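new request in #modeling-help
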Amino acid sequence: MTNDPTPMLHATGISKFFPGTIALDDVEITLNRGEIHALLGENGAGKSTLIKCLTGVYRRDGGEITLDGKHVNPQSTNHSQILGIGTVYQEVNLLPNLTVAENLHLGRQPMYGPFVARRAMNAAAKKSLLEFGIDIDPAQPLSDYPVAIQQIVAIARAVEMSGKVLILDEPTASLDLDEVKLLFSVIRQLKARGIAVVFITHFLDQVFEICDRATVLRNGQVVGTRELNQVSQTDIISLMLGRQLEARLQEPKPKSSGTLLLQIKELGKSGMLAPFNLNIHKGEVVGLAGLLGSGRTETANLIFGAVKADFGQLKLHNKHIQINNPRDAVAHGFALCPEDRKTEGIVGDLSVRENIILALQARQGWLRPISRRKVDEIAQHYVRTLDIRLANLEMPIRLLSGGNQQKVLLARWLATDPDFLILDEPTRGIDIGAHSEIIALIGQLQKDGMALLVASSEMEELVTYANRVIVLRDHKQVGELTGAEITSNNIIRAIAAETEHEGIA
Amino acid sequence: MISYNFFKRIMPQMIILGVVLFLNLLVFPDFFVIEFQNGRLFGNVIDVLNRGAPTALLCIGMTLVIATKGIDLSVGAVMAIAGATAASLVVDGHYWLTAVIGALTVGAICGLWNGFLVAILRIQPIVATLVLMVAGRGVAQLITEGTILTFLDEGLIHLGAGTVFGIPTPVLIWIFLGGLAAFFVRRTALGMLIESIGINEASSRLAGINSRILLICVYVVSGICAAVAGVIVAADIQGADANNAGLWLELDAILAVVIGGNSLLGGRFSIVASLLGAIIIQSVNSLILLSGMPPEFNLVIKALLILAILVIQSPRVGHLIYIMRASSPPIKSDPLTPAKESNR
């Protein structure tokens, strides 16, 4: 490890704006020499945007980057590699049909006149991989080796080309335990060489195992940088999920009216979600909490029939119903605003008017078109009540901001007058104004007697509107909080319970 | 229903057609002359409309298929199958209307097959329809037993070579079917739902649209349109030629849809614009013929003309035109962000 006290990389005031959203807001991050630094945050927190700004994929809208004491301004991935910042992504972007040595030396092969000095290249590759403790034949095609080895070849290539900062984006996502160990030994060697490593992952255990410090992002802002030997997993989780609204006085939530609407019995799908039971009443908001990949979206999709369940029963108004696809669900008065608005929600090139009417029209069937006058009436009604900002109803929905797109999707479902509305991350990636409007709308719909199931990664949001919160972990329901139990702290504790336990053991 | 937007949509095709027709007039001053002889209209314009019938019919179905982000390469082969079916039925002594219904049924079955591969098995449309494109001519040959099956049935021949009120029957058929289809998809919600699937099938499915059935439907419509075209072609030459009927016409149909300004990536479509595209292609053919060029130039010149049309319609050139227009007068409104938004 080097003793040079100046940081390897120091970035301040990094900002990045996308139409309608602030992706990064005045972000500061410092990477020391020989440090493994975790970059944490839920999806959409700005991790990948930050990486892309640091490596020149995106042009940042503000901020300065100092690398090894010098101001730098990376313009492209290539440029940042030359400067000394290398990146390895989860899906290895090497050429599987070339040999390991060729992959390592692509674009800078040792030459022998006009020919590639193959033997020298293989020897060099063998040597550099041995340094990482890997003894393989570099003359074999890369695809002959498991993903972990490919990952390490990618790292070796990045380190040889750059050698100051190495960014690892979800490197362990597709590796098994032994492979992770192998990768970690390589990362520790890089640390010993004085390279600053950025480690992005969703696995907190791994973060605590290998990282020195962690920077947590939320909504495009740095919410904290911590020395990991001084904090617990619970601290980090609460940083990631946030609880700054804790102090705010809580309005008393309207009581649910009590009539049972939907009974879910042992609904599940193997490999996706363990069977669960859930009863939902009219005028009730049930929250789904859990970390990314815990099964929130899967729960919503199974109930709505977007993914067909393997087993389980649904009873609506005490009558058995069968839901095989979203069409069935819509016919029974269900509605779902999906998590991924862009790929599963909006129909980008259709007009706002058509997007609003789509679900109602689909339910009526194509033979009974809704008259233009009626369509305009419905569309204008929702534009007014949901305060959707647009130039006119004819414009394609893709031109709207994230928040307005979300409101159009809500309008699409409200137009079908649903009994049961499922919202998956209704406030992700939308601006603060629309954010609070949507939360207010959830409260309003509940008062009107609608049953809602809301999956959200924002604890304080759930605390604001949910009558009950179901906590999910590892594709299982692990807890339920009701009434006064619903606080950010309790939710975080329920999510962290098991991981914490393992951490101590 | 005929609105300002409709005219705006088909304006580029109208202009191109006008230019090509004008070129026709330049090389052949009598181009627009129409005469009435022996109870039938004669003239180059009538010829263009008549000869363009098969492509026009194909591009009705092709437009719908392409709107769903698909493509139907099998239409040429389906034409051959349908022609062979109709011919063999009348040769066997069936009434001509029975033969036509039989041919259309076969076309619908072909479409059902394509739809099954695409919508149920989820095979990529270009591959799925390639199967029938290759196999279809074989099927047609089996039906005609390897010969050119000729017939003399007056009723069937009328569909290809006859006239109604002096107008060639094929012209009436494609204009009627094209108009019907265009009217139908816009008067029902079908057009919007098809566009929705083509733009984003995942979203559409989650919105409760039965995308499978709709996908199968568009391929069936395409098969039926191809069958009509096949019957007309067979009736015109009074025989079913399994090898040559509709050969390469699927490419002309796709081209017509593209000239009609419909994106191969699916989504927004206009059947009327596609039909104009088909007539533009036929007008180009006529132009080459009338110009008296040696026939060996034909394909090259056609390619050049169509390249020119496509370049004019390309997004790059379109953007340039947009920039040129936008930069001259002051821009009136800011469409995206009303002032209110920034106050928050």
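bot summary: Strands of chain B lie at 34-37, 40-43, 149-150, 163-164, 167-168, 239-240.
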